[in-house]
Amino acid sequence: MPTEAHRIDVHHHTIPPVYREALSDRGIAESGGRDLPDWSPDLSLGVMDRNGIASAVLSVSAPGVHFGDDAAARDLARRCNEASAELVATHPTRFGFFAVLPMPDADGSATEAAYALDELGADGVVLMSSHHDGSYLGDPRFDAVLAELDRRSAVAFVHPVAPAFFDRIDVGIPAFAMEFTFDTTRAAFNLAHTGALERYPDIRFVLSHAGGTVPYLVGRFDLLWFTDDALVERAPKGGSAYMRSMYYDTALSANPHALSSLTELVGADHVLFGSDYPFAPEPATQMTVHGLAGYPLTVPPGPGWNGGPRSSCCPRCLVAWPVEEPPDRLPVLHLRPD
Mind listing the domains of the chain with CATH numbers? Predict the structure, then answer.
């Protein structure tokens, strides 16, 4: 690993053999309109080494593990998470993982979250933005899952999927290029609108792809608080405040258009490096690195600089440790305590 490696990649996917086989058995050969890429730990490590990535937090990507059968989804989630835990044990300084949950099976997901966080040592969980039954994060039926995460001050990495109605959107644009960003926005706004972010304030949410369209649309979202007394009651802080409490990764978003909007909403201390490898191939990782190097993301000096006291965004290892140089160094996720 290069001595200058400093980036912590919070948006880095794993495709373990058990997951690829499960998708193949169901005739699924793509995600978001892109063919499933080749993946292995060595391929990830090579990309990391060539792009200054010290460690990566692995997660299963869309479409997740639930295809209509709760028992099958629970079994697939458990096998994927145990495979990730084994990989982390083999490369403890290079990889961490976000555990996949069998959503929208709330009971099974609450059980798997507790097992993965408490027994497997997961660094958090990955939650899909929506599910095959049309439900979204924030739906009260998922309160048991959020309660388990909140109790542990867990990190919840929100990854988009093509929504259940995607086949009825007749525009011919692959989901990853457009609809993924909208589904992230629906999930984030719904978490605030239903009061979930108020009820479970200790979950550290990380939104993929600079939050989708959250930074651009949050001003419109705020208008709801002027006309809905019930909304004010269940979510008194207002839309922008809840969106500012979240963290955002840079995957496929390290360009001036996205970053200027994002950094009007949150400070650089809530922006985390993300590559989206291998679904976004290595040239996209290189573009992210170069895009960040050319954008003035800075964190004001204060507690947490260069090894000072860490701020908490992860129960075991803690997120958001700003560092000074080079200029694209974002807050990082330390996978293991010193």
Answer: 7-307 (3.20.20.140)
